[in-house]
Amino acid sequence: MELALHAARALVLADLAAGDVARPEVVSLVEESVSHRRWWVGQWPEGVAYVVGLVAQDVQDALMERYGRWPLCPVCVEGEPHALEVEPELGPDPHWVCGKAGVAVAAVGALGGPDGSEARGGPGGGGSV
């Protein structure tokens, strides 16, 4: 369980760093989610495979409430900026997906890597929260 929680933390932090939004107050949001999910997995051990996607969604929701959309879709360069979504919502191997274009952008933890990008930045534009 602890290995899964640490992996989820590392993957979400990697995505935040790729968008240049891994500030201390944002990292605190990740820590809050991991703490909550530790309790959740303690109640439902079979759900450990879903922790990565759930932590990503928790952080995304918390950022939306406090700062704005994250991560912004790098696929749809025209039109209103919108955030990527985590799919599956509750399942293993979560990916950041553009719901409008219907394409997977990157695995959670791989934004800004060879198969994903954070070209349009994060909340507030320019990658900043």
Structure overview:
The chain has three helices and three strands, in the order H-H-H-E-E-E. With 129 residues, it is mostly helical. Strands 1-2-3 form a three-stranded antiparallel β-sheet, covered by helices on one side. A hairpin with a 7-residue loop joins strand 1 (85-87) and strand 2. It is globular, with a radius of gyration of 14 Å. 36% of the residues are buried.
SSE topology sketch:
Blueprint: H1 2-18, H2 24-43, H3 51-66, E1 85-87, E2 95-98, E3 103-107
Antiparallel strand pairs: 1-2, 2-3
Helix pairs in contact: 1-2, 1-3, 2-3
Give a brief description.
This protein is mostly helical and 129 residues long.
The separation of the N and C termini measures 30 Å
Mean pLDDT: 89
Q: Strand percentage, roughly?
A: 5-15%
Q: What would the principal axes of the Cα set say about the shape?
A: globular
- Major sheet size, sense and barrel closure: 3 strands, antiparallel
Q: What's the helix count?
A: 3
Backbone CA Rg: 14 Å
H/E element sequence: HHHEEE
Would you report the number of β strands? 3
Q: Major sheet: order of its strands?
A: 1-2-3
Derived from helix and strand composition plus strand pairing, the structural class reads mainly alpha
Low-confidence stretches: 118-129
**Percentage of helical residues?**
40-55%
From the structure provided, what is the oligomeric state, counting identical versus distinct chains? single chain
